[in-house]
Write a structure and sequence with these properties.
Blueprint (H helix, E strand, L loop, with lengths): L3 E13 L5 E13 L7 E3 L3 E7 L7 E4 L1 E3 L9 E5 L8 E2 L9 E4 L10 E9 L7 E11 L6
Parallel strand pairs: 4-11
Antiparallel strand pairs: 1-2, 3-6, 5-9, 7-10, 8-9, 10-11
The structure holds calcium ion (3 copies).
């Protein structure tokens, strides 16, 4: 169960008694609000990123860090996953080590002469009991180096 917010309000009730005297009593009412995981993480500043990577960059090079915000209590530990769907996307990864930092790294070298632009899809998943996800797109431009002999 998520965090419970409790607060108290005093309720004053006026009434007329049988003897026609005006009386009142004060009761304290405790209101409990239970936060449910009803919002998916939101990428900041938007769900569209751009990055540039040199085709000379070596595996392990940091490409981009994405970040999402979680609004529900007790669901804040967002995890990031790379959905390797598009062509060339398998050259990138979010390692277990970077699962909570959202850092995308290079898994293998890319070749601009093969592919100049690569689109990645990143999923941010919150830590709710019934987790919610959101997606961002990372457009990667591969920069040329003079490597063709
Ligand atoms: Ca949430
Ligand atoms: Ca909520
Ligand atoms: Ca080249």
């Amino acid at each position: 169960m998520n965090l419970i917010y409790g607060y108290c309000v005093n309720v004053k009730v006026d009434f007329v008694s049988i003897s026609r005297r005006i009386c009142f009593f004060v009761a304290t009412l405790t209101v409990m609000l239970i936060d449910v995981n009803d919002r998916a993480p939101e990428f900041q500043p938007s769900n569209s990123y751009h990055a540039r990577i040199s085709e000379a960059a070596q595996p392990g090079t940091e490409v981009k860090q994405v970040i999402a915000i979680e609004y529900d209590k007790h669901a804040e530990n967002i995890k990031y996953y790379l959905e390797n769907t598009g062509p060339g996307s398998d050259a990138f990864e979010i390692t277990e080590e970077n699962r909570e930092s959202g850092v995308i790294t290079l898994r293998r070298q890319v070749d601009r002469e093969v592919q100049e632009e690569i689109i990645l899809s990143v999923r941010a998943q919150d830590a709710g009991i019934n987790p919610l996800s959101n997606f961002a797109q990372v457009q990667i431009t591969v920069e040329d180096v003079n490597d063709n002999r």
